Amino acid sequence: MSDHEPGLLVVWDSPEQPPDGVRCAMWDGYHEDKLRTSLLQRLERDGNRYREQCLEWVEGLSELKIHGERLADLISLEPGLSYWPMTLVAELNYLKSRAFLDILRLLVLEELLDELRPQRVRLVTANSAIGQSVSGLCDNFGIQLEWSGAKPGFPRLRRRINIARLTVGAILRTGRWLFHIWPLRQARGVTWRNDPQSVFICTYNLAAPTDEDMEVQAYARYWGDLPALLVDSSRPLNWLHSYLPAPGRRPQGAVDGATDRNVGMESHAFVQSWLSIPLLFNTLQRWRRLRRAVRAIGTRPIEMANGDRPWLWPVVDDDWMESFFGPTALGNLLGVELFDGALAEMPRQEIGLYLFENQSWEPSFVHAWRKHGHGRLLAVAHTVARFWDLRYYRNRQGVTADCPAPDLVLVNGPGTVSAMTDAGVDTSRIVEVEALRLGNGVLRPDRHRPTDSTLHLLVLGDYEPSSTARLLGLLESATSGLTRSITTTFRPHPNYPVDPSEFPCLELKLTSGPMVEALQAADLVLGGNVTSATTESFVLGRRTVVVLDQSGLNFSPLRSMAGVDFVANDVELRDILETCDTGVATPQSAISLFHLDEQLPRWRKLLRI
Asked: What is the CATH number of domain 455-590?
């Protein structure tokens, strides 16, 4: 195993360089050689199997018997609605927590220990949760562990202090949020369209300061031409918006925008408009009961009951605590009350559409929809399902005792169908429709671009700020000393603007115009590890480069696509910048990913337009 220290395996979770001449399991990074095994690389090579193991372990937690009852039942909020699917542990949302990445790494490490059977494991990490999990794993194999991180003393006292800290943080953060959005209560006096032909739409209201008409784009960006088609077909629309704050945006502007559009055949309201003092009191009462229930359970019984890999629990314990005692808890419970209030007042809706991402608010919405007797509910997956985005693959068989589900999941093409069926999602629940965000025929392969010697580079910002910072930092390093003429245009994510002065060496030109126009003007498109906009670049035939995250997995929707470049360092990116041709496009077939018929025949058939 090692010439210097036979029988030793070093598990290396540190930004420093690992020791030479010793067998190492690398927690981060993709580089491998005869003595270094990348846990992330092994995950990517055998992703299907490890993903299934992770999903099975998390799903199994809800079925654990604690004091003779299922865990999901012990934290039930009301008949038909458990709090379980709203927890960070169950949600598996990579934008909120990376605990599932540690679960996946530990599953790989388990197999590596079984293969190598080392006598000793030396762990180098500053993460106590990882240390506790690796300690439990080594105990399971009877392997001696060397780790300098000692278990913290007085665990009960530390836990109580942590609960107090989370509680205070939850109250302060939620208070600030309520103060900010309180003006939305003005939009509650909406007159709903009480018509059996009306269509209900629940959507995010996400505005970008760069949008020409910020408040229109705040909700229209997700739905393309479908609302106009419905109105033209004499189908009234009842919109329920979930307001999302953005830099420079004020709730009053959102209220004014909604009020201006409450004309003709459309009604607009914000779910946050149902805020009231009695509602806040009911939320706090729910929180008190939920906290009491989870404290009665404790975490030790969960670990003891979980016979299948109990050593994984430490890496999700912080998420468990946050879900019940932190801001996440109050946010989830406010959502339960708000959706209940809004859908209770609304006249019966025969059909409803909502944006589907399997986020924590969705069980509350679906439960309220069912509870108040509304009709058919369709979940609209508005983007591509990424391989490692485990949100889309939980609750795979539809309705369960813990998590209410829609009648159908609408997906935008064969790409998402393939991803979801490969993960075991019940195919009877999936219906293919046209991609609304890519409509109007704009995403057609384009072979023509003016040719000149300058390389036109388009950089696409991510929803995740750290990914965008990493992307621009890598580009800055790759272009240092490069003699080739390059113009760099940057298109930030709508909700995360970037100040070009923070990257003076890049001379960024900002653009907020239509995505397709920006792509068609580029020779090379550089995107982060998360953004789905690289899919459009790929279909349009632009050479597309995705920057990998050295501490995470490949979340790109183009993960398995041939012809896409994935780079992990500035050397690899510099090589592409030096050799990329200009004025060349290699269009790809969009048919393998999306349905793009601008007449929306599938939507027409489904909604009987």
From this structure: 3.40.50.2000
